[in-house]
Amino acid sequence: MEQASARPLVVAGYPDTHCRTVAELDAAVAECRACPRLVAWREKIARDKRAAFRDETYWGRPVPGFGPPDARLLLVGLAPAAHGGNRTGRMFTGDRSGDVLFAALHAVGLANQPTATHRDDGLRLRGVRITAPVHCAPPDNKPAPDERDRCRHWLRTELALLAPTLRVIVVLGAFGWQALLPALGESGWEIPRPRPRFAHAAHLLLSSPTRNPVHLFGCYHVSQQNTFTGRLTPAMLESVLTDAKIAAGL
Question: Where exactly are the transmembrane stretches of this chain (predicted)?
């Protein structure tokens, strides 16, 4: 199985991306300006603000992943919310989707508290890290294909740095599933053919000649469109997280 390396990680096509640690990756992500449309949008939102948050200083930058660098379980979403992560600087923090997600993580013992309101609120994840295939808030919550693909080198880097401990990935929604599979294939895991389709409660085991095998779970996204309509209930989300927790040995 893969051993941790002391050499900097250089991602193909991005020779300036040298990340020895997850902390270095997070710092590098936060400085990215690769997608002009997303840069303009996230900064516009940070200037204009929502009335309820007019007295707050918005993060207004790419939002790095969040959680321990030796996580056994990785949660993959879509992108930061304009007035959630783009405001607070932490994935799923300060929005309705995060309210549902962190309550479920706490319910199954993977977070120390059920709420996430700001970056210094004391929230701690237990063996879990949260990331996204796109790190900037996109207009209408819809990244363009080229923006998704341009951001993929950060996801590949994150997977490589987490690989020594990573055992389980839970993907929230079809967008994340479709974005993650190519990154997993490029990072050394074997993707079945035909490529598996997203479904809630989907579960497969990905093998690799150089990495530890990884369990991949699908779950509907914790968007208001899903949670308000009952397409995704707290019980459904907790069930997937419980199965993932067991598979990860947490």
Answer: none
